[in-house]
Specification:
Distance between the termini: 12 Å
CATH topology of the largest domain: Quinone Oxidoreductase, Chain A, domain 1
Order of helices and strands: EHEEHEEEEHHEHEHEHEHEHEHHEHE
InterPro entries: ADH-like_C (IPR013149), ADH-like_N (IPR013154), ER (IPR020843), GroES-like_sf (IPR011032), NAD(P)-bd_dom_sf (IPR036291), Quin_OxRdtase/zeta-crystal_CS (IPR002364), Zn-ADH-like_protein (IPR051397)
Protein name: NADPH:quinone oxidoreductase family protein
Largest sheet: 7 strands, mixed
Helix content: 25-40%
GO molecular function, one term: zinc ion binding
CATH superfamily of the largest domain: Medium-chain alcohol dehydrogenases, catalytic domain
Structural class: alpha/beta
Radius of gyration: 19 Å
Number of domains: 2
Pfam families: ADH_N (PF08240), ADH_zinc_N (PF00107)
């Protein structure tokens, strides 16, 4: 089969190579799937660089999130059948940027019928992250104001849709006119181009000076620091990631004086700590997908030959929505 392989660490376009490799064999509790679609995620970039908390042995095939058709069941697998379309996480080092991949049954779920292969491939990580962040950690309420950074990106775009579905007023922060259009198409009530506007002032204006009840921050750095200036009394800042390259650094005396909460989210822990909640989340998200309220914005559908280039553009911050390889 064809698969992208990382033989040394560095930038995706420099260290990824397309090769012919054997089809992996499923172990106990695993599924072998024919890859229908695999979404590019920032963890894929970080793994290529050797900077992610998960460090698969070299060589490995990146592509942590996918949609696949079950081809073969490993030992002790129940509840799945050959031919079924599933979404979820790959089992590294046999990731999704290949013709076939492995999945664990614990992190494989029925693909929502309302989504095509590319959309389904991009539905698991971003939307599960958004749902757990907004509903489980921040307890977002109807009528509250939600500020979403990187609102035209992978996880940010999902947060915009989920915030609107929850009845929040959503303010999206993006970089550039093209991304402004994307965030508006996702349903954001107000969109701020950070290149030409100050989101702190916009938030204060929109909320009558009260500030945002919930801040969704997958960026870190300056985005986090400035968010502390426009978070509401008893507001919640969600630390979701640090795609901007600088990890959030919290001044706890400021949180004390302004009476807001800094809430971390490590979504991956829920699969181990509370798998039933992950299943409940998937069911809720599938319901939203059926209703048309949750649908990944696929900006690019790549052939397998173009995967490394697409992942590098994601690394460079030059993409909008989701970039997905489709077979």
């Amino acid at each position: 089969m064809k698969a992208w392989r990382v033989h040394e660490l560095g930038e995706p376009l420099q260290v990824m190579g397309l090769a012919d490799v054997p089809v992996p064999q499923p172990g106990p509790g695993q599924l072998l799937v024919r890859v229908l679609g695999a979404a590019a995620n920032f963890p894929d970039v970080l793994m290529c660089r050797g900077l992610y908390q998960v460090k698969p042995p070299l060589p490995f095939t990146p592509g942590v999130e996918l949609c696949g058709e079950i081809v073969e069941l490993g030992d002790n697998v129940t509840g799945f059948a050959a031919g079924e379309r599933v979404i979820g996480l790959s089992v590294l080092p046999s990731g999704g940027f290949a013709e076939f991949a492995l999945m664990d049954t614990d992190t494989a779920f029925p693909a929502p019928g309302a989504l095509d292969d590319a959309e389904a491939a991009a539905f698991y990580i971003g939307y599960q992250t958004g749902w757990f962040a907004l509903h489980r950690r921040a307890q977002l309420q109807m009528g509250e104001t939600l500020l979403v950074h990187a609102a035209a990106g992978g996880v940010g775009s999902a947060a915009v849709q989920l915030g609107k579905a929850a009845g929040a007023v959503v303010i999206g922060v993006v970089g550039g006119p093209e991304k402004v259009k994307v965030a508006r198409s996702l349903g954001a009530d107000v969109v701020v181009d950070r290149h030409s506007e100050d989101f702190v002032e916009v938030v204060k204006q929109v909320t009558g000076g009260r500030g945002a009840n919930v801040v969704y921050d997958p960026v870190g750095g300056d985005a986090y620091q400035r968010s502390t200036k426009c978070v509401a009394f008893e507001g919640r800042i969600l630390v979701v990631g640090f795609a901007g390259g600088q990890i959030q650094s919290a001044a706890l005396n400021h949180a004390l004086v302004k009476n807001y909460s800094i809430v971390g989210l490590h979504w991956g822990l829920y699969a181990k700590k509370d798998p039933r909640m992950v299943r409940h989340c998937h069911d809720e998200l599938s319901r939203l997908a059926t209703a048309g309220a949750a649908k990944p914005l696929i900006s690019e559908r790549l052939a397998i030959d173009d995967v490394a280039d697409g992942l590098q553009r994601l690394a460079n911050g030059a993409t909008v929505g989701r970039v997905t390889f489709v077979s």
